[in-house]
Amino acid sequence: MTDKSREIEENGYTIIDDILNNSEIKEIISLIEKADKENDTFRKTNELFAIRQFLKGIPGIKSLLFNNNTKSVIQETFGSEYFIVKSIYFDKPGLSNWFVSYHQDLTISVDRKNNIPGFGPWTVKQNQFAVQPPQEILESNFTIRFHLDDTNENNGALRVIPGSHKRGVIRSETINLKTQMENICCIKAGGAMIMKPLLMHASSRSTNNHGRRVIHLEFSKTELPEPLIWSEKISIN
């Protein structure tokens, strides 16, 4: 087991510096800026620019993200069984004042609704079906967040409760920050955060007028029971 694997197992997350170089960051940003903003998976307001099914919507982006560094980290930390099941781009502008309270990532994205025992409740957002799967699926999944900007406590860095992923599904109202340790995940541009879906995490308002652009990729090694199908299943290679 690697040091990063131990950190993820114990704390529910780890941070890796310099997974993308400056040239790769610039090319990624250029591809995003050139993308067709009228696509149905794009959402743009004064306070948020988000792209769902990001890898499908931005041709050429995958090879930049999955460089030798990324592939090596995934192989050494999780092995070769995993595939991508969700990709989202978040751009939180510098003047944005929205925040996200403490929560866990409890849903997966599938192509349509099917009533399968153990899966539910269901939600729909921008024509995307999401469902809460059995807990063992969430426990085996992981997420990588690639940072395109320096991120700290002043522009929406994630706040996390280390080890909370070990407690199963938690009601957010049970979180007492007076008695539980909270870490702020400051990450330089080009760095990445790997986290477990059941890790309790939150994001504060921006206060320094600096934007925060993040590419959020979720991974699984689970084949869903028929007729459920991942809405976005993509090989790492």
Explain what the structure shows.
- The chain has 237 residues and is of the alpha+beta class.
- The protein has a single domain, classed as q2cbj1_9rhob like domain (Jelly Rolls).
- Helices cover 20% and strands 27% of the residues.
- It has six helices and 14 strands.
- It has helices at residues 3-11, 22-34, 54-57, 61-65, 68-78, 135-140, and strands spanning 13-16, 42-44, 49-52, 83-92, 100-103, 108-110, 122-125, 128-131, 142-147, 158-160, 183-184, 192-195, 201-203, 212-220.
- A seven-stranded antiparallel beta sheet has the order 1-12-9-14-4-3-2.
- Strand 7 (122-125) and strand 8 (128-131) form a beta hairpin.
- The radius of gyration is 17 Å and the shape is globular.
Write a compact overview of the structure shown.
The chain is α+β, with helices and mostly antiparallel strands and 237 residues long. Helix content is 20%, strand content 27%.
What strand order characterises the main sheet?
Answer: 1-12-9-14-4-3-2
CATH homology group: q2cbj1_9rhob like domain
Number of domains: 1
Output the CATH class name: Mainly Beta
Sequence of secondary-structure elements? HEHEEHHHEEEEEHEEEEEE
Q: Give the mean pLDDT.
A: 91
Largest sheet: 7 strands, antiparallel
CATH-level-2 architecture: Sandwich
Secondary structure: helix percent: 10-25%
Strand % is 25-35%
Overall structural class, as computed from helix and strand content, comes to alpha+beta
Rg, rounded, reads 17 Å
Distance between the termini: 23 Å
